[in-house]
């Protein structure tokens, strides 16, 4: 694609960062609908906060969009039936985290939706709901952060008492290699996303929004600049390609040159950040009364026959996605939920797609073998690469020694687990693995 000069200069964050190969194999592949599976298994834990409470029983008949688990408290999220059919077993099942959590099985029959959901493609631009009504609708729809964090979206758009928000940032960076779900969504649903931005602006009471997009997505930048050419409140900010620019703190620094303090939140510097996928889901929740029951998932890998961007119902087994993309290659050594930098290996291909599943990456056996680990040579590359200003080599040593409390004093909880330290280490040390171990231990001590 021929590059052109944008209306604005490219920006990026200042501290750390790396440049892994993009490998955006599916960037030009249009969105396609995955056929309905024979059954879905819908996890009850798909969000940060209190687990939802199951409100259906085995043998019940449900429609698409029906609540099957009710949120418990404000920091929680509703779970809805993504398919119509009969409720099967309600039991603990393995999810993409590698742990077992409660899930509801639905044996799919037909595709019968709640009548209250607007299933047409008609764009609805007028926002009739009030700020409080928007928050309530998003809460009812079970929308959570779809960039991976899974924080309940209604809680993010309810401005905390004592905080003043002046800017909304929409995260269209998608810096993780291979993944293209957000890119394709921006290309195919730009007008809906823009209405979603306006909905968020109304809910937050702000008059300024910035959509940050890296400049390896020239087509998306140009498209949004074209749609927003007459507007002044919503602007596009092209960004240099640098990983992990999709991290909230890095994106805020790149776009606004504001630094979120250690242990702080974007609201502390007057900002709220939402992913483009989340923004689209909020449009559908508010304007179409549609709960979060499906999402775009990239299925990709160098040996995958048909890298794809698929609309997938929540709870669909991962194997169904891989089959739609041409089947599991013989060379497969590992299947990862997410991308190569922050994703996690899947132990079972029957694991269900969740609200935060952005991609399924199939990696060849030759690329999965860990290279021999050597002693630290004190080169400092992990420190230079860390976007949070940490000392990753030191955090590894503290984790190995079992000094979790000492690692806490070294701000290990500030780590965003981007994997930049492991990526640049010439001694092939699994730095991120040990950092994650320390963080897990500290969470258990709370």
Describe this protein with a few key phrases.
alpha/beta; six-stranded mixed β-sheet; Rossmann fold; 446 residues; Ubiquitin-like (UB roll); 17 strands
Write a structural description.
By secondary structure, the protein is an alpha/beta fold. The chain folds into 3 domains: 32-117 and 291-367, Ubiquitin-like (UB roll) (Roll), CATH 3.10.20; 131-288, NADH-ubiquinone oxidoreductase 51kDa subunit (Rossmann fold, 3-Layer(aba) Sandwich), CATH 3.40.50; 381-445, no CATH class. It is built from 14 helices and 17 strands. A 6-stranded mixed beta sheet has the order 1-14-13-17-15-16. α1 packs across α4, α4 (190-204) packs across α7 (276-288) and α11 crosses α14. The radius of gyration is 21 Å and the shape is globular. The model has no long low-confidence stretch (mean pLDDT 95).
């Amino acid at each position: 694609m021929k590059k052109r000069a944008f209306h604005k200069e490219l920006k990026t964050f200042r501290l750390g960062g790396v440049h892994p190969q993009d490998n955006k194999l599916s960037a030009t592949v249009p969105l396609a609908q995955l056929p309905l599976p024979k059954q879905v298994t819908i996890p009850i834990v798909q969000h940060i906060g209190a687990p939802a409470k199951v409100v259906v029983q085995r043998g019940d008949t449900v429609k698409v969009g029906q609540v099957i688990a009710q949120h418990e408290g404000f920091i929680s999220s509703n779970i809805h039936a993504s398919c119509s059919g009969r409720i099967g077993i309600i039991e603990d099942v393995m999810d993409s985290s590698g742990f077992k959590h409660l899930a509801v099985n639905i044996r799919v029959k037909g595709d019968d939706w709640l009548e209250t959901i607007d299933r047409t493609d008609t764009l609805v631009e007028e926002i009739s709901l009030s700020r409080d009504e928007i928050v309530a609708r998003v809460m009812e729809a079970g929308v959570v952060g779809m960039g991976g964090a899974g924080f309940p979206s209604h809680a993010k758009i309810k401005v905390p008492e004592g905080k003043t928000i002046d800017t909304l940032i929409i995260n269209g960076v998608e810096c993780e290699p291979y993944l293209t779900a957000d890119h394709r969504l921006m290309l195919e649903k730009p007008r809906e996303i823009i209405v979603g931005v306006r909905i968020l602006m109304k809910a937050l009471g702000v008059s300024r929004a910035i959509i940050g997009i890296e400049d390896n997505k020239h087509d998306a930048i140009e498209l949004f600049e074209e749609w927003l050419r007459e507007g002044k409140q919503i602007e596009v900010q092209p960004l240099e390609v640098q990983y992990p620019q999709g991290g909230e703190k890095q994106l805020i620094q790149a776009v606004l040159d504001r630094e979120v303090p250690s242990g702080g939140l974007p609201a502390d510097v007057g900002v709220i950040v939402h992913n483009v996928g989340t923004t689209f889901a909020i449009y559908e929740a508010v304007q179409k009364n549609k709960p979060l029951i499906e999402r775009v998932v990239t299925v990709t890998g160098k040996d995958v026959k048909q890298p794809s961007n698929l609309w997938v119902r929540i709870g669909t087994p991962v194997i169904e996605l891989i089959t739609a993309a041409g089947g599991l290659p013989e060379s497969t050594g590992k299947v990862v939920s997410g991308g190569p930098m922050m994703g996690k290996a899947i132990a079972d291909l029957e694991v269900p797609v969740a609200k935060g599943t952005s991609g399924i990456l199939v990696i060849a056996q030759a690329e999965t073998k860990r290279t021999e680990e050597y002693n630290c040579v004190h080169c400092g590359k992990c420190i230079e690469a860390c976007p949070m200003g940490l000392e990753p080599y030191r955090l590894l040593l503290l984790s190995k020694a079992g000094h979790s409390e000492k690692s806490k004093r070294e701000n290990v909880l500030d780590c965003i687990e981007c994997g930049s330290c492991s990526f640049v280490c010439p001694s092939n040390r699994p730095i991120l693995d040990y950092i994650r171990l320390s963080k897990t231990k500290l969470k258990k001590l709370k």
